[in-house]
Specification:
Bound molecules: iron/sulfur cluster
Order of helices and strands: EEEEEHEH
Oligomer: single chain
Strand content: 5-15%
Domain 4Fe-4S ferredoxin-type: 1-29, 63-98
Shape: globular
Pfam families: Fer4_7 (PF12838)
Protein name: 4Fe-4S dicluster domain-containing protein
Keywords: Iron, Iron-sulfur, Metal-binding
Strand order of the largest sheet: 1-6
Largest sheet: 2 strands, antiparallel
Number of helices: 2
Length: 118
């Protein structure tokens, strides 16, 4: 499943540079599927959703750092454990029960965003 940042976030910014999928954004910032991935133009996500990778998407939180669930792979394909949770000083990066995915699905997302492996 994806990781979610709770409202206990203190906006320290430590997690953002650690995310291998560029799935973490500062509150109120727009996000894009193309940021930090190989995605460009119109794409169909592994979950069937059609998106424009370069189109700016609305912030998920205006107050605290947030994670795009479509881009989070729980760090699978890159690291042994979620890097955001590992560095967060207040332990507010937790499993998102509303976005439950299998290991296979998470690895599929990682390969889709990074077909060259990086
Ligand atoms: S678990 Fe990994 S991929 Fe997901 S937001 Fe945290 S650092 Fe990024
Ligand atoms: S590391 Fe934790 S407290 Fe800091 S910005 Fe990220 S989620 Fe918020």
């Amino acid at each position: 499943m994806a990781i979610i940042i709770t409202d206990e976030c203190i906006n320290c910014g430590a997690c953002e540079p650690e995310c291998p999928n560029t799935a973490i954004y500062e509150g109120a910032d727009d996000w894009r599927y193309a940021d930090g991935t190989s995605l460009e133009g119109k794409v169909v996500l592994p979950n069937g959703k059609e998106v424009d990778a370069e189109e700016t998407q609305e912030p998920i939180s205006d107050e605290v750092y947030y994670i795009s669930p479509d881009k989070c792979t729980e760090c699978m394909g890159f690291h042994e454990e979620p890097q955001c949770a590992a560095v967060c000083p207040v332990d507010c990066c937790v499993p998102d029960e509303d976005h439950v995915e299998t290991e296979e699905e998470l690895l599929g997302k990682q390969r889709f965003m990074h077909p060259d492996g990086h």
